[in-house]
Amino acid sequence: MNILSIDPGKCKFGAAVVNDAGRILCRRIERVRASGDGGRAGVFDLIYAPLAEIIDETADAYGIELITLGDSTASREYMSAIVMILRKNERFSRVVLEIVDESHTTEAARALFHKHNPPFFLLRWLPYSMIPVFREVDDFAAVAIALKYLKNKDI
After folding, report:
1. Domain residues for 24?
2. Which residue in 41, 52, 79, 105 could disulfide with 35, CB within 3.0 to 4.6 Å?
3. Domain count, the chain
4. Which tens digit of pLDDT belongs to each residue from 91-108?
5. For residue range 51-82, what is the model confidence (pLDDT) as tens digits?
6. What is the CATH number of the domain that holds 11?
7. CB of 58 closer than 8 Å to CB of 4
């Protein structure tokens, strides 16, 4: 089973595809483009098109069966958009949406980042929490959400 996991946010969101063994198949950060209406557009209007594109691409490439969504920032808007996308397209009829507690996923994302991008020389002996991350880790936060779902579904 392949899982599309989404770490929601107002300005950007992380997306990752993880298999049921916890292996990362792909990950990316998608920026939400501000509208030209002076800020009157809601989060839903800004996220719908990028979410539809990601769901469509990952369904084709990886055959996703489940979407996990973090429960924090703007998650209601993301949930509404995802439900609408899934209902509009017949081929997504078997895709299930699960909401996952997003607490501590940023810390897990930083650790995952360092695991996949090991620190150099002397820094590798420091705890991951003390090593700065010089890029956004929303994609790894999405991975952390999927891994949290996989861990908790077995309980």
Report:
1. 2-153
2. 41
3. 1
4. 999 999 999 999 999 899
5. 999 999 999 999 999 999 999 888 999 999 99
6. 3.30.420.140
7. yes
